[in-house]
Amino acid sequence: MLDALSPMPAAPISLHALASQGFLFATGIENSAPTIQGGRIRRDQMAECGHYDRWKQDLALVKDLGCGVLRYGPQFHTTLRAPGLHDWAFADETFAEVRRLGIVPVVDLCHFGVPDFIGDFQNPDFPQLFADYARAFAARFPWVQLYTPVNEMFITAVFSAKYGWWNEQRHDDRSYVTAIRNIVRANVMAMQAIVQIRPDAIFIQSESTEHFHPECPLALPHAEHRNAERFLTLDLNYGRRVCSSMYEYLMDNGMTREEYHFFQRSAPALKRHCIMGNDWYVTNEHLIGGDGHSRWAGEVFGYDTVTRDYHARYGLPVMHTETNMDEGPRGDEAERWLWKQWSGIMRLRRDGVPVLGFTWYSLTDQIDWNHALREQRGDVNPRGLFDLDRNIRTVGKAYKRLIETWKPVLQAESHCLTLPVSA
């Protein structure tokens, strides 16, 4: 129904209750929804992966795995019908079941796409429209405490306005900087709006963790630029001053000093509500050639080394918020990747980096991510804990064992979990 009062009373999730888990084992329901082909096709992964029809079964599978946390959210493009007009029907049903099962949601409000009436990330009205939407969600579901307002801000801007793959499908620096400005401003304003409703809200910013390696001496300046650029969204989001080269890049491509100062003024007050969520795939390290073009390098440094750089920069608690791997021809590559990621987390914790959670993303296989959703082929990517018939995969069994064996140990180490806001 449209905009009826929520029947569910507020029942805050205690931060102390979260801390008592010792470690947050999570998965997610894939809800990417960018547009392609000039906006004519919407890649709604909830529809393509069958979640709309099997949502109750999917949530039961999360519970059966032993995951206490689920990255999940209503689709932005179907929930916000027009400015101030919301269709909460699907969210009301699904979030009631999430709550009944005792699963802690990390609510994903914008995952790569916007409603048709907004258009794309070049629209200067997007930040305010999104903040209003975030406030409306928080008011309707006041028991929710954990949020990822805009998922992977860096990737959203790069794929939409630099590589030209999604949404506005642009390739120029000015459009790219406009997308960064609007996306991060929307994220900051959404956090401000949510905190007005839920003062102890926690924001787990799922962001892609990247590193760029120079292939030859001529590639050094290109790698230096890209390694500074990868921090832009988080620097702005946390109110950290960017380096001089990035400041010039922003100013040269349309950001005004006042727009930059907005982030410096607004973001630091929110930082105490933040956990640095970071995502890691085999494609997150890149090799830069002398001509400035890049290609995937595979794992060179690995999750723990690159995450250590991000933690040193921002000084926040960390949560590993996404990873996956295809099963591969032998059928065990995903399981091997799971244990590799887990070993990196254990090393970081041993070295004093406060990593408080891990996420295999997503619950089920996905569609067409082998070509980044750019082409509508219907290719099934065997990266989930379950296949699309909801049969558990080898990696799903391994993750369930990992949770069963490690959860009691990590609960006893609850001192390692440092949350930024006290209840």
From TrEMBL:
The GO terms this record gives for MF are:
hydrolase activity, hydrolyzing O-glycosyl compounds
Q: Which organism is it from?
A: Roseicella aerolata
Instruction: Tell me the protein's name.
Output: Family 1 glycosylhydrolase
Lineage, top-rank taxon, reads: Bacteria
One GO biological process term is: carbohydrate metabolic process
Return the InterPro entries for the record.
GH (IPR017853), Glyco_hydro_1 (IPR001360), Glycosyl_Hydrolase_39 (IPR051923)
Q: Which SUPFAM superfamilies is this protein grouped with? A: (Trans)glycosidases (SSF51445)
